[in-house]
Design goal:
Blueprint (H helix, E strand, L loop, with lengths): L4 H4 L5 H14 L11 E5 L6 E8 L6 E8 L10 H13 L6 E5 L2 E5 L4 E2 L8 H15 L11 H15 L2 H6 L5 H11 L7 E4 L8 E4 L4 E4 L6 E4 H11 L20 H7 L4 H25 L6 H19 L3 H5 L13 H5 L1
Antiparallel strand pairs: 1-2, 2-3, 3-5, 4-5, 6-8, 7-10, 8-9
Helix pairs in contact: 5-7, 5-10, 8-10, 10-11
Length: 351
Amino acid sequence: MAIKTTELLPSSSPEELKKVLQSVASDWGDVIDDSDALQVIPLKGAMTNEVYQIAWPAKNNGLVRNVLVRIYGEGVEVFFNRDDEIRTFECMSSQGQGPRLLGRFGDGRVEEFIHARTLSAADIRDPKISELVAAKMREFHDLKMPGPRKALLWDRLRRWVSVAKSFCSAKDAKEFCLYTLKDEISMLEKELPNDHQEIGFCHNDLQYGNIMIDEETSSITIIDYEYASYNPVAYDLANHFCEMAANYHSDTPHILDYSLYPGLEDRQRFIKTYLSSAEKYTLANHIFWGLWGLISAYVNKIDFNYKEYARQRFQQYWMKKQELLSSSTIRQKINVNGHVSISQKILSDSC
């Protein structure tokens, strides 16, 4: 069904978006005189932006053109610099990675539509698909990107703690241990392996929704680079393993099932070289996305229970900290109360 773009797309600059679409169509030899000729299909699963597939009939041959329109989410500028992301996007495209950037407008952009299937939560646990993802991930880490080749993880975490404090009520700040998280981050930075730790260009958000597969060629495409930066490769592996606990297309997309976290054999199959340090980096990963969820609860209006998501990520941090870190000094600081919910003070007891 043809729908007016201005009626469905929540863009603050619809006329600018229309001009971009007309320009893209013109480059392909098409003409868009009337926005009623556009078919707009909302794509589900995004938690930072709103994403739409837009199609129109080509001028010749009866073909249908498709592009992807991304409307930036409100408040997400607290997480990353949009200009940096666009530079990353363009650099990735120049190296044959991901979709091409077709145009930009005030609060979004138009991208090449990739004719491939987005992976599901079950797909990333499939051994054959997982091996394809591992190979693509290795390729991603070897990309030569602008900027200093150093880990940005720790400075980003400290900045997000400050942002979370500025938004949160005193009750939330206490419940989520925001007053002690900077100490935890400094401890992890010191404790986690640094010598000979490989630094690569990391995606930092390699959940199944950011991975696409062409089933005819079995080729993998990694998309969405908002959080991409240089980081320890082990962190990116840890993040990918943690994402196996999520199903963002369920009736409760914010609920995480850590029984789905990959077992030793699965992790070894994915990658052996970085296994030990990757496992420890899940701790930093839980803080990273815990802070993201907590801040998003205040700045993002997408229908997703960000605060409950954050609660689960912080809960996993405190529950797994003792198991993954062997330092006796750290061990003395941990309260071992078993599997108690955050509301029953597993967080406040630990901080």
